[in-house]
Amino acid sequence: MLDAVISLLGTEGVSGMSMDRVAAAAGVSKVTVYARWPSKSALIGAALAHLQVDHVPPRTGEVIADLTALLEAMRRQYAEVGGMTILGNCLVDEAAGGELLQIIRESTLLPRRAHLAEVVRDGVASGQLRPDVDVEGAVSLLVGSLYADHLAGRPTGDDWATTVVRNALRGLAGRR
After folding, report:
1. 72 vs 99, higher pLDDT
2. What angle, 0 to 180 degrees and rounded to 10, lies between the N-to-C axes of helices 40-53 and 2-16?
3. Are residues 98 and 120 in contact, defined by beta-carbon separation less than 8 angstroms?
4. d(CA 161, CA 149)
5. What is the DSSP secondary structure assignment for residue 21, as one 8-state letter?
6. What ranges make up the beta strands (E) of the chain?
7. pLDDT tens digits for 148-159?
8. In whole angstroms, what is the distance from residue 138 CA to residue 117 CA?
């Protein structure tokens, strides 16, 4: 059911997604959908959280490797499910519904940022990063690169995450 939601969000947008359409796409009854999620918003939140949980690579303790793996998982996931389209469709609907941006924050953006922030904090604690690093600013720099490069039409191929992390760490790591 959650995969059906992701597919519908990418192709039809929020306004084109209904509990009936999710049920039909998933091959279940509408009652089954409502038994698990009481509203369309709750279902969207669950689907987005499902994406986040299923794409968190294991940590190695090496800042470069861990940040690269997290960013690569984000890039790959966005490419696989049409993440930018889904995000855009949800933002378009934000003015009408008012709650989707908060759902996006809680289900995907904040958990993803928390994983990255943990790596940055551990990097500071282990001496791999400067002690004065602004953790949230560093996370914004890393995550924001995907959105900025997508909007600018820059390629985000297989080496994108490595390049972003190496460029960012030149400033965050200090002199070695």
Report:
1. 72
2. 130
3. no
4. 11
5. H
6. none
7. 999 999 999 889
8. 8
At residue 136, φ and ψ (nearest 5 deg) are -65, -35
Closest CA to 17 of 75, 97, 80: 97
Q: What is the mean pLDDT of residues 33-42?
A: 90
Higher pLDDT, 141 or 55: 141
Compute the 3-state secondary structure of the chain and give helix, strand, coil in percent, each to the nearest 5: 75, 0, 25
Q: What is the dihedral of CA 51, 79, 121, 164, to 10 degrees?
A: 180
Least confident of 33-37, 49-53, 110-114: 49-53
Instruction: Catalogue all structural domains in the chain, each as residue range(s) with its CATH number.
Output: 2-172 (1.10.357.10)
User: Mean of the per-residue pLDDT values for the chain?
Assistant: 87
- Looking up tokens 């469709």 gives 89
Retrieve residue 28's tokens.
Answer: 């279940």
The total number of residues shown for the chain amounts to: 176
Closest alpha carbon to 160 in 148, 171, 174: 148
More confident residue, 28 or 78: 28
Contact by Cβ (8 Å): 34, 23: no
Separation CA 141–CA 163 (nearest Å): 13
